[in-house]
Structure formats: structure tokens, C-alpha cells
Amino acid sequence: MTDWQKVFDDERVCVIVPTYNNERTIADVLRRVQAYTLNIIVVNDGSTPATMTAIRSLEQLPEIVDYTPNRGKGYALKMGFRRALELGYRYAITIDSDGQHFPEDIPAFMDCHVANKEALIVGARNLTADNMPSKNTFANKFSNFWFHLQTGINLEDTQSGYRLYPLEVINLRWPITPRYEAELELLVFSAWRGVPVVSTPVRVYYPPEGERVSHFRPFWDFFRITVLNSVLTILSLFTFIPARLIRKISKSLSK
């Protein structure tokens, strides 16, 4: 039987859990993560007191980064990365606190990490699952297209927030954007820096309509993602794509 805590310690991996008003689900998520590791950093992104009450109900408390007011998921990730580096971690798995991700898939990330030590690993959801909201499927295909255009990399699920980041290649000024689009920004900037980006299959659970707490604003957040994609595409046309062509030409001339 694998001693996952030892693996996490040896590899210097932690789990970062951003949360905003997920008092109904966060304690269960954290207990299930603790079945694999106690190297946990919770980022309380300006939640109501009920969320902290739920966190403090645990027998073993995680490291907590706590601030107000709510700043958005991108800012929460940045604060989590910063704290992880201060604590000496080299890698961080990010998992949502709303219950959609399965902590039981953590071993899949660790196995993939051992085989791809310097890679940013993205948990690829089954986008054809019966319970996957149609708007999520469309938004992900839209995002996948632009990510390929910007980086030349085919990725199954660019919008999954269930990931493993190599912290030493993350610039702490990233992400620049504060909300959900920040996760796309992190992917693109990492790819531009030459970080390998790979996928591992993960499960996802979407509760029936009305039961899931989501802070995603369909119109405004999709608008922000569209604006970000436009900016990243323009940047890629003038920076990443020319640099990639120059590298290819140099490589062919050196043969």
C-alpha cells in the first residue's frame, strides 16, 4: 500500500484549496484530501464566517491563508502559490472546494507527476459525460481552440481547475487577471516558457441544477475569457510564434 504522505513529502508537493463561501462542501473535500496528505493550504478568499467554521471543524487543521474582501480565484491561486513556496514546496495540486473534483483522483496526478517531473499537469474531465452542462462543453471547446492557436499544444481540457503546477517556474506576478480566466493565463504563460503541459483523466461531479454553489458568471466571465484570448493571441503572433519559428529554423540549420 502506497504511503502517500511520504510521497508528498519526498516530492515536496502540497494541495492548494481556494474557497469562497463553500461552507457546505469544503470540510468533506478537505477530509478526503487528508486521506492522502496533510500538506494542505486553504485560501479563504473573503468568505462568510460559515466557511471558516466548517474548516475549523476538522480534527487536523490545514494551513490557512485568510483575507478579505473577496478578490477572485486568480488572486487566491497567487496567494496559495506564494505561501506554498514560503513553506518550501516545489509543486502544488489545485482542487476546487465545491465538491466537483474527486480528491480520490490525487494518486493519478502523483503517478503522472513522477513520470513527468517538470510538467504542468491538467486533470482532463470527460466532456461527453451525461451530467456535464452544455455551456461548459462549449466554453471548453472554445478555449481549447484558442489555446492551441496560442501555443501549438493540443490539450483536452483547458478549463479544468484540477491541476498540478511546478511552482519554481511560476512567476509570482502571474496570474495578472484575478478571476476564472486566470487559469487559462497560467496555462498559456507556462507553455510560452517551455513548461511541458500534459493531461491525466479525472472524474467530475456536477450536482443537479440548484444544488451546486457556483460563482461563475456566464456572461461576464465568458466575456473576460474572450478578451483574454484576444490579447494572448495578439501577443503570440508577435512573440511566441516568431520565436518558435526561429528555434525551428536554427535547429534545422544546425543539422
Briefly characterize the structure.
The protein is 45% helix and 14% strand.
What does this structure look like?
- The protein has 255 residues and is of the alpha/beta class.
- It contains eight helices and seven strands.
- It has helices spanning 4-11, 26-34, 49-55, 73-86, 106-115, 134-151, 182-192, 218-254; strands at residues 13-19, 40-45, 63-67, 91-94, 120-124, 163-166, 197-201.
- The chain has a seven-stranded mixed sheet with strand order 3-2-1-4-6-5-7, sandwiched between helices.
- Helix 6 runs parallel beside helix 7, helix 6 (134-151) packs parallel to helix 8 and helix 7 (182-192) packs parallel to helix 8 (218-254).
- The longest helix is centred in the C-terminal third of the chain and has 37 residues, at 218-254.
- The mean pLDDT is 87.
Give the strand order of the largest sheet, numbering strands 1, 2, ... along the chain: 3-2-1-4-6-5-7
- CATH topology assignment: Spore Coat Polysaccharide Biosynthesis Protein SpsA, Chain A
Strands, count: 7
Q: What structural category arises from helix and sheet content? A: alpha/beta
Coarse morphology = globular
- If you compute it from the alpha carbons, what radius of gyration comes out, rounded to the nearest whole angstrom? 18 Å
